Amino acid sequence: QVQLVESGGGLVQAGGSLRLSCVASGRTFSSVAMGWFRQAPGKEREFVASISQTGTTYYADSVKGRFTISRDNAKNTVYLQMNSLKPEDTAVYSCAARNGWASMKTDAYANWGQGTQVTVSS
Questions:
Q1: d(Cα 100, Cα 61) in Å, to the nearest integer?
Q2: Residues 42, 47, 48, 53: what is their CA dihedral angle, to the nearest 10 degrees?
Q3: How far apart are CA 23 and CA 77, in angstroms?
């Protein structure tokens, strides 16, 4: 089982930016699809962005144009650059890995990180 560790969360003002990182253990990072998901208090976990083994990206409509997912296979790391942050972006952000395509479904992913808190103030 792959271990995933997120970092980069914090408290920012609306309109600000954060870059989240997720580092995967092992030497098989390049062979998996990666996704970012978030869960706000009292709400179900939702898809944010995903990236395939070959670099194809997918985004939730709510973050399209503001967030960018990328990966650096040499560093076993996936990133989520978050710009123009809004209070509604406040959530715990988690990265996940799976074999296969870069699914938008939470239950398609088997390996999850612990999550990192992102809080956006108005």
A1: 22
A2: 150
A3: 4
